[in-house]
Backbone:
């Protein structure tokens, strides 16, 4: 090959690089390792983590069983090692599964259109807010304090230079639900969107109808955030919402210390042209057969450049495929039964510990440690190879005795009894 | 003769919803070990949903056949060369997939105690250090989820630095050869965009740049090697011009595969850059993600990096959740860790020497293709090629055949097309990036195919214009898809059922 191109050595290929830019030493990275050594290294790292612990952490990342079919499908090289499906004729596999994903997200959320995925729930929220700005021509965003604190942080990072003032409104200190009187005070005629989450960060189911009514009365859109997607197996979708922004980690996506996950944005058909990200549409090929392709690309950065609806390019296709397989395996009956098990387990555990709030909850709730600190309770549990709940003081200083506990279909009764004992002491 | 492929059958496959039958199921849950509760009574009657209308109902075997059949309708790296320019579609090592699934890593919860997360934090810390060494930068954040997300993070960092010095400034300079994500990112970070024209050699025109840089310019966003696969020979001068006016240099690291072990952005004046782990570092593209877009910076930008920051005190890794000057969070938790694990496995397998060899092979492969194709296709920019080369369809266009048609005909020869019509500065662009993982045998098949197509254009242009001919799906009508968007399945209406 070198002689074909008229070069004497591989070094010759770089002869035109300016001398001053060349790296004149080897990279300071140890020499290559064998497959066995690599597997061994990562096993050792895995063993340094919480291996073999039962966990009652939720807070945006949930321990749900991952059906075997999920990794079977996403490990197929045809899905794993393909690019974004620009060339429709040889990408119908990916395109069809995305079309099915978009359809299932609509069925699940009660919305009319959905995109092909966002990075995660936290980035879907500011993307939805930017969408609302474009749709309403207004700029303010009012967000509930019961929305995941890290999602709110991401919203602030995105909003800061886009002329998007963000205001928070509070929660009812007894019920743990939206303080709608506070929302009435904070919302005004310049508000583009009201953002709420349900189940909220405390696990409590919010009243989206009243929030939607207030938002719409002021000409704002309601953005409804879903962080625990399994809840949609049992909870009525928010048909009054205008945009749903959510996280699908619960759908067979491994916790992986926080990512990769997959976010969603779903909305009404009339808002479709303001969606960010990829969208797959149905069409026909030249022989008249049904075919799918990426569509409405004139919203996107590679066509519209600085006028695009978002800068998003690579999204989370393979992770969205995990969720698609999950939704297929569980299906209509299964997702409901799964959600019912979560509800039952969480209510079993909640029945044995002091609850901080009185609002209705799905699979998470805030327990009070009363006389002791959350850290003391969690230390007790760690001694029994159980990771307790999230101490809330870090995000809500006023809840310094609050612990956010989550129970899923993976939570076993005897472990829950052990947790309850630790709270009772 | 088409040496790489011939037609074979594969099965038609309806949509899941069309395959569903009421009551079918592919799952089994263990019996509840706690009392069941009534959803309507604990959630409130108005909050409990009846069912999920239209959701699939299939058996396990139907599910796996569905997805397996669909998979056979995809092209993939595992099936052959995937020469998309700027996408770096290299082989995705399978050991990476396996180690990312190790229980202690895959099931680590982001809020589990630091004392029980040392292994995954060590992985992240080690990768940060390696990426800093490869790029010649001082610090790395792994938080951004993809390249465009990294760009956004990087520009926010520059903005924060300039703001801390009194003036965030108003605009970014972006060459006309740049990826579309660059200008889109500028807008999201609150900057106006000034496009700068490339010179005849496809590079940034230094004199024009010097005239454009003033106190309003926050940064230049530059891709190096640029999207023509050409190293910006004046990069140190370019950086000096920006720095002399107090502006910064942002580098889009999409093309880093051309530089690893050869040259480091941190040594040629770059202040901030992102990397694409799903390009240079072999994490699989997965049909459009997940990616990962770490950002590397020089020391002055370090205080502004996204929170939380990973640090090591003594033998112990910890998270610093409150660095006082941070731009905040660009993503919940700590980033796409599963991709970090894969990228570290890739770096470990190669080692420093192996990474450098990979770059040299990638550049060799691109130069080989360039040399062999050059007699048949127009090469508008003749500057030395690094990891990719860009031809144009100028000769073929005279016969009415465009880059998009040649791309579709390549499919008949068993290859995924190159990147079509990008970069925008080349009319009718054919952008080819073979990567280092392709053998000479595979490259030769690809070269034969392009040469054969060039002859077809002369002799039987119709054959190329109507391609692909051998795929199960023929040319797709994208215009109708956009004009009358159907973006979800709906049950056939009663009316159309009656007509059946």
Residues:
């Amino acid at each position: 090959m070198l002689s074909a191109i008229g070069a004497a050595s591989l070094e010759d290929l770089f002869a035109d690089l300016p001398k001053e830019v060349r790296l004149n030493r080897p990279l300071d990275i140890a020499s290559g390792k064998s497959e066995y050594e690599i597997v061994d290294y990562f096993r050792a790292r895995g063993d340094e983590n919480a291996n073999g612990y039962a966990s009652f952490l939720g807070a945006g990342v949930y321990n749900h069983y991952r059906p075997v079919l999920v990794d079977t499908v996403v490990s197929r090289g045809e899905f794993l090692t393909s690019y974004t499906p620009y060339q429709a004729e040889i990408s119908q596999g990916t395109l069809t599964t995305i079309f099915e994903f978009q359809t299932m997200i609509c069925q699940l959320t009660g919305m009319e259109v959905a995109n092909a995925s966002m990075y995660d729930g936290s980035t879907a929220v500011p993307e939805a807010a930017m969408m609302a700005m474009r749709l309403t021509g207004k700029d303010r965003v009012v967000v509930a304090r019961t929305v995941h604190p890290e999602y709110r942080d991401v919203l602030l990072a995105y909003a800061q230079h886009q002329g998007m003032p963000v205001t928070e409104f509070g929660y009812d200190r007894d019920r743990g639900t939206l303080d709608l009187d506070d929302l009435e005070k904070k919302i005004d005629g310049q508000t583009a969107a009201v953002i709420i989450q349900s189940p909220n960060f405390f696990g409590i189911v919010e009243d989206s109808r009243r929030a939607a009514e207030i938002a719409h009365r002021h000409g704002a859109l309601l953005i409804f955030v879903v962080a625990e997607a399994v809840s949609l197996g049992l909870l009525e979708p928010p048909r009054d919402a205008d945009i749903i922004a959510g996280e699908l980690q619960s759908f067979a996506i491994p916790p992986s210390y926080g990512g990769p996950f997959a976010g969603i944005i779903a909305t009404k058909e009339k808002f479709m042209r303001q969606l960010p990200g990829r969208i797959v549409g149905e069409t026909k090929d030249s022989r008249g057969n049904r075919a799918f392709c990426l569509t409405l690309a004139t919203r996107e950065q590679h066509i519209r450049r600085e006028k695009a609806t978002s800068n998003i390019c690579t999204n989370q296709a393979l992770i969205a495929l995990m969720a698609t397989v999950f939704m297929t395996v569980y299906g209509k009956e299964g997702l409901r039964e799964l959600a019912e098990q979560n509800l039952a387990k969480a209510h079993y555990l909640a029945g044995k510990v002091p609850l901080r709030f009185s609002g209705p909850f799905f699979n998470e709730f805030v327990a009070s440690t009363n006389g002791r600190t959350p850290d003391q309770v969690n230390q007790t549990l760690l001694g029994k190879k159980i990771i307790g709940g999230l101490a809330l003081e870090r995000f809500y200083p006023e809840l310094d005795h609050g612990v956010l506990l989550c129970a899923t279909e993976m939570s076993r009764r005897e472990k829950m009894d052990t947790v309850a004992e630790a709270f009772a002491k | 003769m088409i040496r790489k492929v011939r037609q074979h059958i594969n099965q038609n496959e309806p949509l899941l919803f069309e395959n569903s039958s009421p009551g079918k199921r592919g799952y089994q849950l263990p019996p509840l070990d706690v009392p069941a509760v009534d959803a309507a009574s604990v959630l409130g009657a108005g909050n409990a949903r009846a069912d999920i209308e239209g959701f699939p109902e299939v058996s396990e075997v139907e599910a796996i056949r569905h997805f397996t059949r669909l998979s056979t309708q995809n092209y993939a790296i595992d099936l052959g060369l995937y020469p998309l320019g700027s996408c770096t579609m290299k082989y995705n090592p399978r050991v990476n997939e396996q180690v990312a699934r190790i229980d202690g890593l895959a099931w680590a919860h982001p809020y589990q105690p630091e004392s029980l997360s040392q292994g995954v934090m060590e992985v992240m810390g080690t990768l940060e250090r390696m990426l800093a060494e490869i790029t010649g930068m001082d610090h790395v954040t792994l938080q951004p989820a993809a390249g465009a997300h990294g760009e956004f993070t990087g520009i926010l960092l520059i903005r924060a630095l300039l703001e801390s010095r009194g003036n965030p400034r108003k605009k970014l300079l972006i060459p006309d050869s740049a990826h579309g994500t660059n200008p889109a990112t500028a807008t999201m970070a609150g900057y106006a965009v000034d496009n700068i024209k490339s010179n005849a050699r496809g590079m940034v025109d230094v004199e024009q740049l010097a005239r454009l840089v003033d106190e309003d310019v926050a940064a230049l966003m530059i891709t190096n090697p640029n999207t023509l696969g050409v190293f910006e020979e004046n990069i140190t001068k370019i950086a000096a011009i920006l720095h002399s006016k107090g502006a910064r240099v942002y580098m889009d690291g999409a093309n880093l595969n051309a530089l690893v072990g050869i040259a480091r952005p941190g040594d040629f004046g770059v202040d901030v850059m992102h990397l694409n782990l799903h390009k240079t570092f072999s994490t699989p593209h997965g049909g459009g993600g997940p990616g990962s877009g770490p950002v590397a910076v020089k020391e002055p930008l370090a205080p502004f990096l996204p929170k939380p920051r990973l640090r090591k005190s003594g033998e112990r890794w910890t998270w610093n959740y409150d660095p006082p000057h941070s731009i905040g969070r660009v993503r919940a938790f700590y980033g796409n860790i599963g991709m970090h694990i894969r990228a570290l496995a890739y770096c470990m397998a190669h080692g420093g020497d192996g990474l450098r060899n990979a770059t040299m092979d990638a550049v060799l492969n691109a130069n080989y293709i360039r040399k062999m194709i050059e007699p048949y296709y127009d090469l508008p920019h003749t500057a030395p090629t690094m990891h990719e080369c860009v031809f144009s369809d100028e000769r073929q266009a005279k016969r009415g055949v465009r880059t998009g048609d040649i791309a579709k005909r390549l499919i008949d020869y068993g290859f995924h097309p190159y990147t079509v019509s990008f970069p925008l500065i080349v009319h009718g662009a054919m952008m080819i990036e073979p990567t280092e993982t392709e053998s000479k045998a595979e490259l030769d098949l690809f070269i034969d195919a392009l040469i054969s197509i060039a002859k077809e254009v002369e002799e039987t242009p119709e054959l190329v214009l109507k391609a692909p001919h051998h795929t199960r799906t023929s040319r797709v009508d994208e215009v109708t898809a956009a004009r009358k968007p159907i973006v979800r399945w709906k049950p056939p209406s009663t009316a159309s059922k009656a007509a059946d």
Summary: Chain A has two domains: 54-66+332-424, 69-325.
